[in-house]
Prior knowledge:
Number of helices: 13
Shape: elongated
Oligomer: single chain
Number of strands: 5
Number of domains: 2
Distance between the termini: 48 Å
Radius of gyration: 24 Å
Largest sheet: 5 strands, mixed
Strand content: 5-15%
Strand order of the largest sheet: 1-2-4-3-5
Amino acid sequence: MNHAKEKFDLILMRSTVTATHYSLLSPFTLESYLYTKEALKRYWDILSQDACLMISYYSELRQSAKDTMRFLQMLQLYKLVEALNLKEHTIIIRENISIGNSMLNRYVFLLFKNAIDKNSLSKFKIKGELLYFPGKIYDIKDKENDYKRIFNISFLRDDKPSLYNFIKWRKSLFYIFKLIFIICLLIIILLVLGKVNFKKTIFYLLLGIGYIALELNLVGKLVLFLGNPVYSMQVVLASFLFFGGWGGYWGITRMKINIKRYLFLLFLFNFLFIFICNWLYTLNIANQILKNALAFLLVAPVGFFSTVPFSQALFKEPKRHIMYALDGVGTVLGTILIVFIQIHGGFSLGFLFIALTYALAIYFT
Length: 365
């Protein structure tokens, strides 16, 4: 779609579900990128005159939870066309259909290239229930404010493609705080047993948080460029392990290493990755091996730099077993925090969070 030169009379997506993601706990599936603001703009550009985009979802009548999710997905699309000023081109319908012995609700989102006449409703042979029609107030608009109080219905972006997440961030925050409280208890136990000072504790926690958060954020951000979460996970993990191993070796064989310099480079690279990843999306590379190789090399510097400060500091540390444990606790804490930020703020906000983590690590060095 990004590089299509021809125009299309119809683009049809019928309950596109790939169930393809890099982790069972990951909210970012491959089909998420089909329904983002950037994707809808691309569809609009390649639609010919008098053409139409059709997106449909299905749910069984007896599955009220799934039906609510389908309605929320239609509401997300409505918010999207509202943001793009394309409401005058949009119709949303809900209808009951039967397939075999099953009774289903079908939600249909229609986006026409030409604007719809507000007085032309009779021209459309609509059998189901109208949820939205230009100039008319229907179910989707009536329920928007009610659903906004309960659910997160913000539209998707390439930078924040959490398709199936409708939980408000405030509700998630309660569970995050409970997990952090448990982790803090483990930290206190380590401090008491190991008799470690506060500054070192924070330093090793920050290194663990930054390392795992950077790795997971790159995995999520590169999915769109590489075309599959599996490729993204393999490439990023391979680059981190290979170059991280060399970075660790470098850290313990060079006695006079300025740890703050490497932390500053990590701080800087997190800002650069916001722009580098967006630049990758513009490249027209058809060969999957070349894309994997390019991503592997781009991740290499941070894979190398991320292990140098930890290896150097740990090598000189007399209580290294306690510090190693604190770093491990940091990776758990970092995983929780970065996934929360990715879902509710996006990958770019994730890079800013990681940059802040390494800035604090410089301070506590």
